[in-house]
Structures are given as structure tokens and as C-alpha cells.
Amino acid sequence: MIKIVTVCGAGVGSSMMERLFTQQILDGENIEGVVDASDIGSVDPNSYDIVVTTSDFADQLSETKAEVIRINNLMDKDYLKKELLAAIAKINQSEEN
Amino acid sequence: MKILLYFINNVLSQPIFIIGIVVIVGMAAEKKSWDKILPSTLKAIIGFTMINVGGQTLGTALLPLQLMISRIFRVKAPNLTDIGATQASSLASIGTEMALIFALGFLVNILLARFTPLKFVHLSPHVSFFFAGMIAALLKFNTKLTIVPLVLIGAVILGLYMTLSCAYVNILIKPVKGADGFTLGHSSSSGLLVASILGKFLGNKDHDLEKMKIPKKLNFLREMTIALTIVMTLLFFFLGLFSGNGWIMQNVSGGKDIVVFSITKGVEFGMWITVIITGVRMMLAEIIPAFHGVADKLIPNAKPGLDVPLLFPNYPTSVIVGFLCSLTTGLIGMLILGAANYPVIVFPALIPTFFTGAVTAIFGNAHGGTRGAILGSCANGFLLIFGQALLLPLVGSFAPIMRILSETDYCVYGPILGFFLKAIGGA
């Protein structure tokens, strides 16, 4: 069960959309996971496996063990998919070791 | 028949049931099972209640601003509208109409995309939800319409607004970087029009504002809650300074000096904003996928109208500069209105100032470089404050929400619609 959070400034607009795209990718790949949307002010990255956000917010995230995916073209679903699957593979690998 | 009437009067008159029904219908259309629908529906209703309570209480928290501004400018207008007086029934009195206009307005937008050449689908429900509220309030408080015609007329107005704002922003957005394949569905559209025109005729595209790098340290201003808390604290502090510390301690703060008072008030403001935004998030988290689902099914070839922060990664400097420019002119406008003894106390609505300020600077910059960005976002600040001043008396119990959420389109189109309704005699 992978836990993912999408982050933007207010947590209602673009992060909500990224959450939807992320969920679609997970469903398409039959990967079990929950996706939340949050704002940079209140998010706790450590309670998630993966954080999806833009570069400027990625710099502001507190130190975290979570995989951070930086995406600057929020409409680029292919890039998101590639990065997501890579991050999930990485997490699965570290769990096996 | 009796049962139906009972149902309408006792159940459907409660906005939370309407919101619930909208979520259930939306999720049923997505073929979700009841174990998903039930929690989502409850979350949406709790979210709506948070917005309602947050809006009411925030209005009360802002009361001291009214006292201070009246004191500084010695406003003695005979019909000074009291912020507190409109608190009682904030969303409750128009919530039902608001929720229905919100749902049906989206359908009008879909139908227009389906059957006219304007193939745009407005996918920012957090924008259209509050716009629906403004339309509901304008119709309710300025006409004698009963609920059915009110909702139908409101839905047509909202649907037209959603489609047309996407359509003209689609033309303006051409020179903006990183906006391929989408337009904006956002209530800053009238400000974008003004900023683009100012940039085009008075600016120079070659002086790109983004060449100027602002210190990375200023990035914390991108954190909404933090930026707004700081600005609000400063606003309370400076108004307190002009009102006089002694006067404040005696009449407003219950004995706290202005430093302590302004910090507690600023933090309080940040907290209620967080409550409202969290409410919006809880309410819409479940509705947004349904919106996307319906749009994908019915109009797969439509261009989506999305939220403004999608453009922010490419324009970090414009975002901060735009916010500060709009805030500055908003504060100037506030002082002008105070000095002119305007009967309604207004102060800049900070969330709108942030988002519309940022995006008007982006468009101003794309059409006319640095000068375009500054002119555009400064003009936007004036539109926000003077428009809000005209809008507040027209929206009755929705005023507290409009004090904190009225973006440029609310301030421009709201008064136009309101005065039109008044002119045709409130038929």
C-alpha cells in the first residue's frame, strides 16, 4: 500500500488535479495506494512514501525520507507516470532488502 | 404531495443535503460503490460546514479593522454597514441555491462545449462554487425570484461565465510559457484582460521580468497561510498605530497593546483561513474527480480551463512581484475609500490579492515585460478593492465570504450584474 501526497500552495487547485492524475496512473497500473492533496503549510512529508510537487515547493519541504518527485509541467502525465513508477520501484526494492 | 412538500421545506432547504446529493450523483456517475460514496459525502458536508463557520467567525475576527478604519478617517456615514450584522446567516440562507447553481452551471458549461464552437470545460470547481454563491446572493437579495427560476437563471449565468472566461483567456494566454494545451478557468480573467491590454500598449516585451531574480529567501511568501498571517498582522499593527495605542487598548483590544494585539489577530486570521481552505479541500476532493470524469466522457475534445498555480513554476519572480503590487494598490484603494467616507469599510481580500496579483503579473509580463507586469498587477489591486466596495452592499449575507474570497471577476462582473438587476427593478 503506497502512500502519496500532492502538494501546492493552497492545496485545492493544482495539487487536487495532480492527485487525480496520480490516482489514474495507479489505477491503470493496478497498484494499490492512497493519494492525498495538501498544502505546503500543513503537509507532513514523513507520513508519506512519495511527495509530488513543483521544484520551488520541493526546496521548501522539510527534511524527509519520502521520495520527492519534482514536476514543473503539471499537465505532463507521461513524465509523472515515468517518475512515479521509478519511485515506486525504488521503494519496493528497499523494502525487499 | 404533503410528503413532497415536507421534504422540500425541511430537507432540501438545508444546503448540506444539496451538497451531499451533488457528491452522491457525481460519484454514482463515476460508478463508485457505497463504501466509497458514504465517507466522501460526509467529508464534503463537513467541509462545507467548515467553510460556513470559518467565514462567519473570520468576519467577526475582522470587526476591529472596521472600528480602526472608522476612527482613523472619522467615518460618520449614516448607514455604515456593520460587518457583524451580516454574520448570522452567512451561507445558510443561500447555500441551497448556491449548491444547485454550482451543479447546474457546470452542466450548462458542458452543454455549451458540446453543442457550440466554444469547446472549453471549466475544471476549477473551487472557483465556480463561490462564483455560484455570488450569483445566488445577487439574485436572491436584488430580485423577487422564487427558488426554481432563480436557480435556472443563475445556472445559465454561471455556465456562460465559465465558458466565456475560458474562451477569452485562451486568446490572452498565447505568449505565456508553459500553458500548452490548456486555458485558465479562474476568476481573475477580467484582471488578465486588463493586464494583457496594458502590457500590450504600454509595456515592452523585451524586458522580461523573470530575468530579475528575487532572493530565494522570499520564497516563504509562496506559503499562503504564512504570507497572509504576516500581512494581516502588519495591517492590524499599522492601523492600530494610526488609531493610537491608548485608544486601541481602551476600545478595541481589551487592554492588549498594539504589538500583542496585532500578532494575536494575525495568527487568528491565519488559523481561520486554514480552516476555510481545509473545508474547501475536504468538500471538493470528492467532487473534482467527478467533474473530470463527466468532462472526459461527454466532451473529450474540449480544452480544459485550469487553476492559475499551474503557471507559477515558470514565473517565480512575477508571482511575488504581482502579489506585492496588487497588495500595495489594494491598500492605497482602502485608504482612498476611507478618506472619501465610503459607507462600507473595505480592506484587501488577501487570498484573491495573492492569486490574482500573481497571475495578472504573469500575463502583463508575457504581453509587455516588466512594465506590463507591474501595471497589470497594480491595476488588478485597484479593481479588487473598488469592486469589492461596490459588491459588498449587493450580496447581503454572502458579504463575509466575499470579504475574504472576492477575486477580480467577482469585483468586476458582480457589481455589473447587481446594478443591472437593480435597474430592471428587481423583477
Describe, in short, the structure shown.
The complex is a heterodimer of chains A (97) and B (427). Chain A has 97 residues and is of the alpha/beta class.
Spell out the key features of this protein.
heterodimer; A: 97 residues; alpha/beta; B: 427 residues; mainly alpha; 16 helices; 3 strands
Task: Explain the overall architecture.
The complex is a heterodimer of chains A (97) and B (427). Chain A is an alpha/beta fold and 97 residues long. Chain A contains three helices and four strands. Chain A has helices spanning 14-29, 55-60, 77-96, and strands spanning 2-8, 33-39, 50-53, 67-70. In chain A, strands 2-1-3-4 form a four-stranded parallel beta sheet. In chain A, helix 1 (14-29) links the parallel strand 1 and strand 2. The two termini of chain A are 17 Å apart. The mean pLDDT of chain A is 82. By secondary structure, chain B is mainly α. Chain B has one domain. In chain B, 70% of the residues lie in helices and 2% in strands. Chain B contains 16 helices and three strands. Chain B has helices at 2-10, 15-29, 34-61, 63-73, 95-115, 125-142, 147-172, 189-202, 224-243, 245-251, 258-284, 287-298, 316-339, 350-391, 399-405, 408-423, and strands at residues 120-122, 183-184, 303-306. A three-stranded parallel beta sheet of chain B has the order 1-3-2. In chain B, helix 2 packs antiparallel against helix 3 and helix 4 (63-73) packs parallel to helix 9 (224-243). The longest helix of chain B is centred in the last third of the chain and has 42 residues, at 350-391. Chain B starts with a helix and ends with a helix. The chains are: A alpha/beta (97), B mainly alpha (427).
